[in-house]
Write a structure and sequence with these properties.
Layout lengths: L1 H26 L3 H13 L3 H14 L6 H14 L3 H14 L6 H14 L9 H16 L6 H29 L6 H15 L6 H17 L6 H18 L6 H14 L7 H7 L2
Helix pairs in contact: 2-3, 3-4, 4-5, 5-6, 6-7, 7-8, 8-9, 8-10, 9-10, 10-11, 11-12
Length: about 280
Amino acid sequence: MKIKIFFAFLLTLLITSSCGEYNKILKSTDYELKYTYAKKYFDEKKYGKASTLLEELVPIFKGTSHAEESLFLLAQSYFYNKDYTTATQYYKAYCNTYPKGDYTELSRYNAAYGLYLDSPDVRLDQTNTYKSMQEFQTFLELYPQSDKVQLAQEYLFEMQEKLALKELMACRLYFNLGNYMGNNYESCVVTAREAIKTYPYSKYLEEYQVLILRSRYELANQSINERKPERYRDVIDEQYNYLNMFPEGKYKKEAERYHKQALKAIGQNTDNLSTSTEETK
């Protein structure tokens, strides 16, 4: 018990001593000393203390030999403390001030990477995702020979897929809403077509296309009689589009079923359906 009390007392003493030291440095007007401690705290991974000191020192050091390094360390402190938004602001400030500085390439990359790490769940607003993509594009344009190019490209593609998934979720929602409070099937078609144009290499491409086909079928099936022939022809067109894009797609049987029902609805013979389907391959 006495040993435990002794160690608890020792720990309290160390913490108090450490806090006392930090408070003295905060109150000091010796900026060189403050900078020494800011770098010391950074090396010790005490990024909160480091950033607090550097916030005061960066404007004071403007035009001095410490100006460039102190601004970069401030950005790094926020980055490692996982305040990526603030870190990005300081990285960009560094790049604007020192476009050919010692840390410019890393600052460009970390600005993009921090926003990538701060990119929220796909169901939420994706402003940071778009910003990160813009920063990575800038990085790739400025440093095409960087050893981080492959990573930057991978993160870019990952975020594109994230945005593609967000569009797919919107398409699914429109389809599920159907005719509730408006023509949501048409909204599904429009959204899916735009997504196909925007993300032509996405893994969600097939699902976009089948949602277009399903929406066309539901529009035709639920139309007034005068509109049915035209809309069933749209179903036939979309079935061909689907099979041309995905001749062995996982929704092939579903697509052929819509095709057969559409042909029947407009009074065309379905006996040669299997033959015509083979010809589209």
